From TrEMBL:
Cell cycle in keyword set: no
Predominant localisation class: secreted
Subcellular location: Secreted
Name of this protein: Partial
Entry-linked Gene3D superfamilies: Haem peroxidase domain superfamily, animal type, Integrin alpha, N-terminal
GO molecular function annotation: heme binding; peroxidase activity
Pfam families: An_peroxidase (PF03098), FG-GAP_3 (PF13517), Tectonin (PF19193)
């Protein structure tokens, strides 16, 4: 993209280098608009743009562009409140007032307008990169009054409807304006953030351009916006007549209905920001987006705990809801129609007056009638939210009965001398609008019996006067009375605030909302057990203590009036410890009460494994070799899952000058041996005596967890051999739709840069390729597996060569002078999709390196993941050391008997962290001879990769404790893995019996045709775990 802009909607608008216009919706996908522009702007005045001829256009009717005649502009800005400004080719500034353009006296090359804490201000950049602020811009006076010179030199600036001001300087550095307040609308200084070429800001977030790529800029702290006094931000888009004084902006438009709602919205906003700040200190590697999302999740859990544990038992009485037993797929958590009326029981509990109390619960001002609190923020602006919330906690609500205060039956939303509305009448009418049946139907649903007359309701509506009135108004028919009317007339049950029918309907709704919500905080996997324990400690009273100024004490349950309850100090009110949210790469978070700090403490947990290696003679009887030393040495066999049972089976197919040998054997864990299944004999050769790679790959093409087969090879006679077979579960079936779109190997050039990887998260393997032949010849591309074949997906084309042609005559003929280009496909962020990293030495003054995250749509440049060491180093391995789903990096290369390069980096999801305790204790590779006989495999079945090694004269094992390596020679592999020259000795680590501990099997054909075979099961008593690699 060349230019971007966003405004008050969730859309981002952009123009690319070809002048094409795009919009980015909430689904994060670009949509082409089929209209060419050079500049686009979205804001409170709609979407405007200019084209190459400087004509001005406005988007109307949801999809059409209307040309605005008259003035020609090179840049335009759609500001708030219908204000539009623009800059001509000669840098003259204009604003649009009604249907006319009005000149503003200043030469600028760029201008942007937005709302800053209730005022509209326009920021501009002069041709000399000076920054200016235009004061007192209004809809009636779009030209404003005067210019203020701002410090700094910038080339582009943006101010959003949310008040944020961002700018980019001539060096491509991004800044945010600090110190902006209602008393200082143009702030105090610029704070550097990062590099960018341009920026835009709005309610949908902050977006920036960097090298043509659009990024969303997350806030550094993950905080919610506030206004002065730690109040909600001001809503500058609300009509002046909507609120007395200013409206506040919250997640619900009804936050301004009355001050009690405003106060609670503010309380939870403060709690969000309090938690976000603590999480930021606990996890410095988290970005603003991660902090925001995790805090949002915690706030949701806190609300659930308060509602279900502290509030509902008081409202509905003990035992109204059964104990939580986990998420139920068959429960619909949607809102029951009847609940829309039943839960309006709270209208009966509303008091006429709201007390304003200090932290000692003494009045600081006369109580205020509710009628004066509708859409009126004056008390909050004067006193803050504290007096109102202390008043709510300090007094008793009205009972649920038929008596409603006249504040809501005669003065609801009353303004000036106008008549107020009647909330009771609205509730009754809402019953009819929703088409709800009468009270009697709900009695039957709640198993209270079929009432023929109101005398039949005497057990529930115990007040005779209530029954008499209902009998008179509803012709003595309980089937005619509205649920809400009869519900509040019922006598409350013992220990409850409501009667049986409302308890039934309201209880059923909250039960469904809990049991049908897979994100409910107590559902397994949503939070860790320790985090759930912490959430259970919190309460509304604790939120008061943590977020209200000058608070001293409060009752333990804020839903019970402080009049009859003791008020312990806040130090005695339990709360959650956010230490449980500290991310530890190794160990677990621990709060040190002496230092008052949360630290990661390592408690080694190694699995007891009395039988390290046990003979498995049945498995050792492999019918063919894993590796043969004959000829150049070759690998004629593979371990693959043929029947989808999760166990690896054995196949082989070798082509010799005289004949071919092939076979297939299923792994039978009951018999503990491989059983011959000729129907699975590989249909094509896997190797010859001269080559171990004939371009055959076993991959799961159709997502059935059984290995299928594809092949593609260019022979030394220039023959193209290719094909595909689907594994049907009973044999192989030709599948031409899956023939690889590119050849995989070449007899002469080897690896052709093809890889099968999971790109889009659909569980089926996809296809990428990139081969460097010369500067002008670099075949590359990508294909998605549709389930019916391959479909071109150029967005997934690898950004760097996977392989290059080796120049046998001159190793330095060009930069890419060897086959392996160091590209590795690994999961960097734990989302199950393969990402890309590479780092390789090109020359003494040149290293090529990079990292790209796969976001499911394309490759996203992610420099924070650039590997700290060369990935073409044979001594470097990507392994998931702590089983968090994100790959880590270890390396140990032997240079000489006295020198080696070694270390370890763990991936915290944001960058590489040095972890010396995971430095491999034994070399992985030798600089001259390659393989040094070390492997990473989970030999004790605890789900963590261990390290074992065996080569002539040296063997050993190191168990991964979850914190570090712990040497344990009892786990030394029973068979040699590599020779002193780095040659393959036919030993493999495979979980043979499916118990999670990785076993060892060997089948080596020596040059003299003698065989070395064997099989050992690791940690036979182990339970389930992850298979090592």
């Amino acid at each position: 993209m060349k230019q971007i802009d966003t405004g008050i909607t969730s859309k981002v608008w952009a123009v690319d280098n070809n002048g094409e216009t795009f919009s980015l919706g909430s689904d994060q996908k670009w949509k082409k608009m089929n209209f060419r522009l050079t500049h686009v702007s979205a804001g409170g005045s709609g979407v405007w743009g200019v084209d190459t001829n400087n004509n001005v256009f406005r988007r109307v009717g949801g999809g059409n562009w209307k040309r605005i005649p008259g003035l020609k502009l090179k840049q335009i800005d759609s500001g708030p409140q219908g204000i539009v400004l623009g800059v001509t080719k000669s840098n003259q500034v204009y604003c649009r007032s009604g249907n006319k353009w009005k000149i503003i006296n200043r030469r600028l090359k760029y201008i942007s307008c937005g709302s800053t804490l209730g005022s509209t201000g326009c920021w501009g950049i002069s041709p000399g990169n000076r920054v200016y602020y235009r004061e007192e811009v209004t809809r009636k006076n779009c030209a404003g009054t005067s210019w203020v010179t701002i410090d700094g030199r910038m080339k582009q600036i943006e101010v959003g409807g949310n008040g944020d001001v961002y700018a980019v300087d001539s060096d491509g550095k991004l800044y945010v304006r600090e110190g902006v307040s209602s008393s200082n609308l143009y702030g105090s200084g610029w704070k550097f953030l990062r590099g960018a070429s341009s920026v835009t800001t709005g309610w949908s977030g902050q977006y920036l351009l960097d090298n043509g790529i659009v990024y969303r800029l997350s806030g550094d702290e993950g905080l919610l916006r506030t206004s002065e006094g730690d109040l909600l931000p001001l809503d500058t888009s609300c009509k002046a007549s909507a609120c007395i004084q200013a409206c506040f902006l919250a997640g619900d438009m009804r936050a301004n209905d009355q001050q009690g709602l405003t106060a609670f919205h503010t309380l939870f906003m403060r709690e969000h920001n309090r938690i976000a700040k603590i999480l930021r200190n606990l996890n410095r590697h988290w970005d603003g987006e991660k902090i925001f999302q995790e805090t949002r999740k915690i706030i949701g859990a806190i609300i659930q705990k308060i509602v279900y544990v502290d509030y509902l038992p008081i409202l509905l009485g003990p035992g109204a809801l059964p104990r939580y037993s986990g998420h139920l797929d068959n429960v619909n958590p949607g809102i029951i129609n009847a609940f829309t009326l039943a839960y309006r029981l709270g209208h009966s509990m509303i008091r006429s007056k709201f007390d304003l109390l200090n932290p000692n619960f003494d009045p600081i001002a006369p109580a205020v009638n509710l009628r004066f609190l509708f859409f009126n923020s004056s008390n909050i602006n004067t006193y803050g939210i504290e007096p109102l919330l202390f008043g709510l906690a300090g007094n008793v609500s009205e009972k649920v009965d038929t008596h409603l205060t006249t504040e809501i039956t005669e003065h609801l939303f009353e303004r000036g001398n106008s008549h107020g509305e009647n909330l009771a009448a609205l509730n009754i009418q809402r019953t009819r609008d929703h088409g709800l049946p009468g009270y009697n139907e709900y009695r039957k649903l709640c198993k209270l019996g079929d009432a023929k007359t109101f005398e039949d309701t005497s057990s529930e509506i115990q007040d005779r006067e209530n029954r008499r009135i209902l009998k008179e108004l509803y012709n003595n028919d309980p089937g005619l009375v509205e649920l809400w009317v009869a519900g509040i007339a019922e006598t409350p049950l013992p220990g409850a605030v409501v009667g049986p029918t409302l308890r039934c309907v309201v209880g059923e709704q909250f039960k469904r909302a809990r049991d049908g919500d897979r994100y409910f905080y107590e559902n397994e996997g949503i939070f860790t057990p320790r985090q759930v324990q912490e959430i259970r400690k919190t309460s509304l009273s604790r939120l008061y203590c943590d977020n209200l100024k000058d608070i001293v004490s409060i009752q333990r349950n804020a839903f019970k009036s402080s009049i009859k309850q003791p008020r312990p100090s806040c130090g005695e009110i339990a709360g959650l410890s956010l230490c449980a949210w500290k991310e530890c790469l190794t160990g677990e978070p621990h709060f040190n009460p002496n230092t008052r700090k949360c630290v990661c403490r390592c408690s080694e947990k190694t699995k007891d494994c009395p039988n390290k290696w046990t003979d498995a003679s049945g498995y050792s009887a492999l019918p063919f070799s894993i590796y043969s030393e004959r000829g150049r040495g070759y690998k004629p066999s593979r371990f693959v899952d043929l029947n989808g049972d999760g166990l690896l089976d054995f196949v082989y197919h070798i082509l010799t000058p005289k004949k071919s040998f092939k076979g297939a054997y299923l792994n039978d864990p009951t018999l503990k041996k491989f059983v011959h299944k000729p129907e699975f004999d590989p249909p094509v050769a896997l190797a010859t005596e001269k080559s171990s790679d004939l371009g055959v790959r076993f991959v799961d093409l159709n997502g059935d967890e059984k290995a299928d087969l594809v092949y593609g090879r260019l022979t030394n006679k220039d023959e193209r051999v290719k094909g595909a077979y689907i594994n049907t579960g009973s044999g192989w079936k030709l599948s031409p739709e899956y023939i690889p779109p590119r050849l995989i190997v070449s007899d002469d050039d080897g690896d052709l840069g093809v890889r099968f990887v999971e790109l889009n998260g659909d569980g089926m393997v996809d296809f990428v390729f990139y081969r460097y032949i010369s500067e002008k010849n670099q075949p590359k591309g990508a294909f998605i597996n549709t389930g019916n074949g391959w479909k071109a997906a150029p967005q997934f084309t690898p950004p760097y060569p996977i392989a290059s042609d080796y120049d046998h005559d001159n190793d330095y003929d060009y930069d890419y002078d060897y086959e392996d280009q160091s590209v590795r496909f690994v999961d960097l962020n734990g989302d199950g999709r393969m990402d890309i990293v590479y780092r390789q030495w090109i020359s003494s003054d040149r290293v090529e390196k990079g990292a790209y995250i796969n976001d499911g749509h394309t490759w996203v440049w992610s420099p924070q993941f650039i590997p700290p060491i060369h990935t073409d180093n044979k001594g470097a391995k990507f392994v998931d050391l702590n089983a968090d789903g994100k790959v880590d990096l270890v390396y140990h290369t032997r240079i000489s008997s006295k020198k080696s390069r070694k270390g370890a980096y763990m991936n915290n999801g944001y960058r590489w962290i040095w972890k010396s305790q995971y430095t491999p204790p034994f070399p992985i590779a030798d600089e001259k001879n390659g393989d040094y006989g070390a492997r990473f495999a989970d030999v004790n079945g605890d789900g963590l990769p261990d390290m074992v090694w065996n080569r002539p004269g040296d063997k050993g094992g190191a168990i991964n404790t979850g914190c570090e390596w712990k040497l344990d020679d009892a786990f030394s592999p029973p068979y040699s893995i590599a020779s002193s020259k780095g040659k393959d000795l036919g030993a493999r680590f495979v979980d043979l019996d499916g118990d999670g501990a990785v076993d060892m099997i060997r089948s080596l054909e020596q040059k003299n045709k003698s065989k070395k075979k064997g099989a050992k099961l690791a940690c036979v008593s182990a339970g389930n775990g992850n298979v090592g690699v």
